[in-house]
Amino acid sequence: MKNIPAFEPGSVWLVGAGPGDAGLLTLYAYEALRQADVLVYDALVGKEILRLTGPDTLLEYAGKRGGKPSAKQQDITERLVTLAKEGKRVLRLKGGDPYIFGRGGEEALMLAAHNIPFRVIPGISSGVGGLAYAGIPLTHRDTNSAVTFLTGHDATGEVPNVNWEHIAKGSPVIVLYMALKHIQVICDRLIGFGRSPDDSVAVIFKATTEEQKVVVTDLKNAAHDVAASGLKPPALIVVGEVVKLRPQLDWFSRFLNQAEGN
């Protein structure tokens, strides 16, 4: 497309790869994959997306996963600066959206401090795309006109220090990223501050991919049901009445079942 900007040597594009399905990439992201000299990518970027790179693109893994040996953020950011100063067209590809719990802001600030030209390409966050593929609308006129997005852990790895009482009482729908490790504590806090133990919960594993699984439960049983499922991260947790719309709106499971039948 003629309106796609040129990927200039010595610059960095911070690009959101979306929640998993390669079809959810933006046109900018697709063009960046084709033009990049170096791709620095996260753990949640799927192989289907990596195959879209040009034949001469160098791939560098920079994934961070909880509880596993991972690249340090400072090292990743410094690597982006080094590659750009070498005159490379550097694509920093991040799962979801770079600025939604993706630490893209930290990387952009470092690039700006070193006068490295950069562009930010938004991606579909799992909190939007993952819910849609799970048959759960993020908002619905009959249930909610507000949503709260939370990370399930802070910089130390612990439950974030937020006003849980206000969230429990004031947000009809809560979407939690990277919260599986602390699901019991989070559910207890929400219930302790007045949320109904029967409030609906969905836990979406590997959202938008062919391996997607959804556990539907409630606040009082969520931790037990997730443990019993044996499913592992990445996962997204949704709390609220919108979860009850899933039986009518679960189009993706039907699509996968039809595909398997063929």
Automatic annotation (TrEMBL):
UniProt similarity note: Belongs to the precorrin methyltransferase family.
Pathway(s) of this molecule: Porphyrin-containing compound metabolism; siroheme biosynthesis; precorrin-2 from uroporphyrinogen III: step 1/1
What are the residue boundaries of the Tetrapyrrole methylase domain, all occurrences included? 12-222
Q: Which gene holds the coding sequence for this protein?
A: cobA
- What name appears for this protein in its UniProt entry? uroporphyrinogen-III C-methyltransferase
- Where would one find the signal peptide in this protein? none
Its taxonomic placement starts with: Bacteria, Pseudomonadati, Pseudomonadota, Alphaproteobacteria, Sneathiellales
Q: Name one GO biological process term.
A: methylation
GO molecular function per UniProt: uroporphyrin-III C-methyltransferase activity
User: What EC designation does it have?
Assistant: 2.1.1.107
SUPFAM superfamilies noted in UniProt: Tetrapyrrole methylase (SSF53790)
Name the Gene3D superfamilies on file.
Answer: Cobalt-precorrin-4 Transmethylase, Domain 1, Methyltransferase, Cobalt-precorrin-4 Transmethylase, Domain 2
The UniProt keywords, alphabetically, are: Methyltransferase, Porphyrin biosynthesis, S-adenosyl-L-methionine, Transferase
The species this protein was found in = Sneathiella marina
Highest taxon of source: Bacteria
